[in-house]
Amino acid sequence: MKYEVKNGWKDADEALKAAVYDFANGYIDFLNSAKTERESVDEAVRLAGQVGFKPLGEAESLKAGDKLYAVNKNKGIALIVIGRRPITDGVGIVGSHIDAPRLDLKQNPLYESDEMAFLKTHYYGGIKKYQWTAIPLAIHGVVVKQSGETVKIAIGDEGDDITFTITDLLPHLGNSQMSKPAYSFIEGENLNVLVGSLPTSEGDDGKKVREAVLGLLTEKYGIDDEDFTSAELEIVPAFKAKDLGFDRSLIGAYGHDDRVCSYPNLRALLDTETPEYTAICLLTDKEEVGSMGNTGAKSRFLELALLELLDKTGAGANALNLNRALDRSLCLSADVSAAYDPNYAGVYEKSNSGRLNCGIAISKYTGSRGKSGSNDAPAELMAKVRAIFNEAGVLWHTAELGKVDEGGGGTIAQFVANLGVDTIDCGVPMLSMHAPYEVAAKMDVYQCYKAFSAFFNRK
Ligand code: MN
Ligand code: MN
Questions:
Q1: From ligand 1's centre to the CA of 372, what distance in Å?
Q2: I want to staple 279 with a disulfide (CB 3.0 to 4.6 A). Which of 116, 130, 404, 456 is the partner?
Q3: How far is ligand 1, taken at its centre, from the CA of residue 336, in Å?
Q4: CA 101 – ligand 1 centroid, Å
């Protein structure tokens, strides 16, 4: 049959249009209530609880149709529906990440300079630093007090009473700044968030604004100066996710990468009833910095979850069974791809680019230069996946990240594949990836949901 990259709106009937717009509304709500990895986990647990999912740790024995979740240190989660076949026949995993590029507060962030209070940051993930100045910013995260008590923070979003920002230089005085290359004209050490300017009558001379801000934090959140050292506070754009375009066909939002795959992944899993193979929605942290640590895709969390499943289904939680299960499993590594952007046509190879509105983009490989750092998925798996998608009427196309040698990037695919799992990349093509405001097409978000549903329910 002819390989065709087709715009999904071309012969969309009314039912499809309604489904696409309806699904997008749920996604926009998710984006606005989950701006960080921790908030995404909280939201996943809340949504799963509504449809009867139970903590895996509390289950004693498991049978087909059981619905479970396991949280990984508040920053990752696996949601599971037990299938008819034994775990040793392999499982179906859709893995996506819930961390996003942002600015993290340093451990000693609050300082005063010239009667203005600022918070020092250290950026997380691949950002263009100049994009983070002169926009409204919010603070999301947790402060864990010495007692172990966790204070959750979410301040500064649009619609709330306050916001924050990082200042930029006025063009009138920007001559030398504007002549520098874009990667250096805003220095990382200058990404300091303006948080106050009102001095208190108490405190050291020269630090009265800092003292005043600290006083407000203590009064409102019970946080003192040293509590910042055991906090994870993330500076994120304050914009709300919204319909974009006169026709409302697009969504503008912070953090589409990779909530735009994680939400369809979550929804597809929550809607799955007793599949043939056990279905797992895996939401991971730390992808934007290399999937490191005990909450990233390189951690042992997936293996532990599978051992729990082997144990509680009575199969025997031993190394042989675990490795058999992994070896026979399939994984869609669900992450965003670059959509062809006519404003920057020179960096794309059009016939192998992701395209807006053309459905889920499948990438056999990612990486840079000679496919370095890529999981190059086997042709046999590509054949299986396209058969699953075609049978379910999923709109899909293939994509690679820009021209050869233009740049590149990686995903969690290689780390899951390292365990023996047949893994392939696929996901939503997007514009302005890693910018504070990214753009994705509603058609593609919905097609991802259809694709993941078909994968979880494969025979
Ligand atoms: Mn990503
Ligand atoms: Mn990314």
A1: 17
A2: 456
A3: 5
A4: 9
Tell me the pLDDT of the chain (459 aa) as tens digits.
999 999 999 999 999 999 999 999 999 999 999 999 999 999 999 999 999 999 999 999 999 999 999 999 999 999 999 999 999 999 999 999 999 999 999 999 999 999 999 999 999 999 999 999 999 999 999 999 999 999 999 999 978 789 999 999 999 999 999 999 998 899 999 999 999 999 987 766 678 999 999 999 999 999 999 999 999 999 999 999 999 999 999 999 999 999 999 999 999 999 999 999 999 999 999 999 999 999 999 999 999 999 999 999 999 999 999 999 999 999 999 999 999 999 999 999 999 999 999 999 999 998 889 888 888 999 999 999 999 999 999 999 999 988 998 888 889 999 999 999 999 999 999 999 999 999 999 999 999 999 999 999 999
Name the burial class of residue 405, with classes exposed (0-12), middle (13-18) and buried (19+) by CB atoms within 10 angstroms of its CB.
exposed
Distance, CA 379 to ligand 1 centroid (Å)?
A: 23
- Across the beta sheet with 116-124, the strand order is 150-155, 137-144, 231-237, 102-113, 116-124, 193-196
Tokens representing 269 are: 């899993």
In angstroms, the CA 47 to CA 30 distance is 10
d(CA 80, CA 269): 7
